[in-house]
Amino acid sequence: ASLARPASLADNSSLVTHHWRFEVNYDVKDITLADQGKLKIEWAEASMPVLRLIKQRFAKQKPLNGVRITACLHVTTETANLAKTLKAGGADVRLCASNPLSTQDDVAASLAQHDGIPVFAIKGEDNKTYYEHIEAAIEHKPQITMDDGADVVSALHSSHKSLLKHVLGGTEETTTGVIRLRSMAQKKVLKFPVISVNDADTKHLFDNRYGTGQSTLDGIIRGTNRLVCGSTVVVAGYGWCGRGIAIRAKGMGADVIVTEIDPAKAIEAAMDGY
Fold first, then answer.
1. Interstrand relation of 68-73 and 144-147 (parallel, antiparallel or unpaired)
2. CA 96 to each of CA 72, 175, 180: distance values in angstroms, whole numbers, following the listed order
3. pTM (predicted TM-score)
4. pLDDT tens-digit series, residues 8-36
5. d(C-alpha 108, C-alpha 114), whole Å
6. How open is the CA angle 83-85-90, to the nearest 5 degrees?
7. Comparing C-alpha atoms, which of 134, 162, 159, 136 is closest to residue 148?
8. What pLDDT was estimated at residue 34?
């Protein structure tokens, strides 16, 4: 059925599409991109064997049957496969973007069109639309939150306190979000438990070191079209992200300099050859 779109979602441009299909509401840039996004999601799934196995098990066991989940994450192919896995487990999932700059519009369209998942995300959306999308995502009274920056948790604790009684717990993926949540916990104002996914070993050892290392250099190369080989690259800080950037830059032939205020990490950087 085709229904009128909610008044809370404002048009950003003539390109923005707001529809209901099979009683699934969404706010995406262009729903006609759905088939293109579906191919990208399937391609990414081929490199996510662990999640694929979990999805197969979830489809049989339905451990999340009827559980309402609000996810405020990067709307990318990887997140799309996570959302599909949660839905396979029986969850009622709503997704909004934690970073408007990383949103893949075709992926958002595919989740709404092909998977029946309410998605509220438009690449480059303004600040007003960003928070309207969070409002739309928590409209179904979440029992579990999945945050990348703690904006959903913040919204629930500030302007939607009546919804807190429904929440069983949540997850947080970023250092920024964890800092916000720990501050709330210390002040004893955090009303439900949150798992710090950001503290997982796989986050630091692999995502930060290898993922951020590659994506940072990729962004610099795309933005500057500069040859890394022969360039001088200065890395500020030798944490896991800094290590990843340093090793990638060095591998591409750069002269890498590391700055660091922690003496132990500084020695480690020197011993690693920087």
1. parallel
2. 5, 19, 20
3. 0.84
4. 454 443 344 444 334 579 999 999 999 99
5. 10
6. 95
7. 134
8. 98
Angle at the Cα of 38 from the Cα atoms of 33 and 44, rounded to 5 degrees: 130
Measured between its terminal Cα atoms, the distance across the chain in Å is: 61
Largest CA distance in the chain: 64
Yes or no: say if 104 and 75 are a contact pair by the CB < 8 Å rule.
yes
